[in-house]
Amino acid sequence: MASNKVVGILGGGQLGRMLAASASLLNIPVIILDGGPNTPAKQILASPYHTHIDGSFSDPIKIKELAAKVDVLTVEIEHVDVNALDEVESTFKNVQIHPAPGTIRIIQDKYSQKEHLARNNLPVSDFISVESSVEGISSAAATLGLPLMLKSRTLAYDGRGNYVLRDLAQSHDALAALGGRPLYAEKWVPFTQEIAVMVVRTTTGEVSSYPVVETVHKDNICHLVFAPLRTRDPGLIKRAQGIAEAAVQSLSGAGVFGVEMFLMENGTVYINEIAPRPHNSGHYTIEACETSQYENHLRAILSLPLGSTALKVPSAAMLNLIGASTSLSEIQQTTSVALSLPGTSVHLYGKSECRKGRKMGHITITAPNDAELRARLRPLLESLPNSTA
Ligand code: ATP
Ligand code: MG
Ligand code: MG
């Protein structure tokens, strides 16, 4: 056994499922806390090592019930009850929490996250807090211009919580769409590419970066990831990794962090946001890197030696399988194409209901070169609904 410490994970979605799968290879016992009856992670917790607690990751009583059974607590989602984690930290002296509750608190409010980054001299584009009213929105637009990216400060994921305001006449619509939640606004960033870096940090504070990847979003949801990022700018890779590492150094606690960034025409890099956990842009590491983000997250929080973050294939991509409707048939179609191609690995998350915009699985493609990667990717893209590939 790599470690006899028990790991508790708040959240049992696909990230929890892949963390648990990785833990099982090292015989690391895992207990998952999630409210759903048959969530992706619970489905694979069949060994005596692994178990789960039924309950919400935002329920303080359930969080304490989990804490009483584990040595290390971690999260696969940032929308957890941080006050409960603070209490665990002060009452369960033998339980370590990674990343630190304070880190999760800063990150789960996207406005306070941006303030934190700006305070630490990390590059972010202009942003301001916005009162949730038509007047509040028009005053933000007067300061930052149009289009304006309105964002919900809390509970955001997959772009749910974002509204692109192109005209002040849309203000009512924006308020209705964002459901009266606390808001802030970001200046529109005319990026040329979106990039991301996974950074892993040990309990003693050392950081190590995975390769810089290109992320392609469609309707605000991550659609494709290409690893490594191809660029003619010789300094870009080190620059982006340096910014991502500095951002992670500004926060406390161990584990992997996903740093999403915008790349501008002139080579400037801005941080979009940070995830304090394994991240969609790091799924490719399972097949394409020496050590996956999931395994390195576990190694980091358990104070085990980190594994290499290097790529072990010349070229890789990740395609998210996103629900097109309530039917699984579109996902099945792309899956069957993938099964007939070389170099592809299909990951299905076991979600019982398919919905438009829901992440149902992903496919990793690896290849000996970029041309072969594109050739393998093409039939997958062509199989997607409304494909224009
Ligand atoms: P995630 O699932 O990554 O947590 P999220 O709901 O937190 O998503 P963001 O990452 O804030 O949403 O935004 C989603 C996408 O919207 C970005 O990846 C980018 O494509 C676009 N976007 C976000 N902020 C801006 C901006 N200020 N200007 C232009 N485009 C933006
Ligand atoms: Mg986010
Ligand atoms: Mg994002």
Automatic annotation (TrEMBL):
<feature type="domain" description="ATP-grasp">
    <location>
        <begin position="114"/>
        <end position="302"/>
    </location>
</feature>
<comment type="pathway">
    <text>Purine metabolism; IMP biosynthesis via de novo pathway; 5-amino-1-(5-phospho-D-ribosyl)imidazole-4-carboxylate from 5-amino-1-(5-phospho-D-ribosyl)imidazole (carboxylase route): step 1/1.</text>
</comment>
<protein>
    <recommendedName>
        <fullName>Phosphoribosylaminoimidazole carboxylase</fullName>
        <ecNumber>4.1.1.21</ecNumber>
    </recommendedName>
</protein>
<keyword id="KW-0547">Nucleotide-binding</keyword>
<keyword id="KW-0067">ATP-binding</keyword>
<keyword id="KW-0456">Lyase</keyword>
<dbReference type="GO" id="GO:0046872">
    <property type="term" value="F:metal ion binding"/>
</dbReference>
<dbReference type="GO" id="GO:0005524">
    <property type="term" value="F:ATP binding"/>
</dbReference>
<dbReference type="GO" id="GO:0004638">
    <property type="term" value="F:phosphoribosylaminoimidazole carboxylase activity"/>
</dbReference>
<keyword id="KW-0210">Decarboxylase</keyword>
<comment type="similarity">
    <text>In the C-terminal section; belongs to the AIR carboxylase family. Class I subfamily.</text>
</comment>
<keyword id="KW-0658">Purine biosynthesis</keyword>
<dbReference type="GO" id="GO:0006189">
    <property type="term" value="P:'de novo' IMP biosynthetic process"/>
</dbReference>
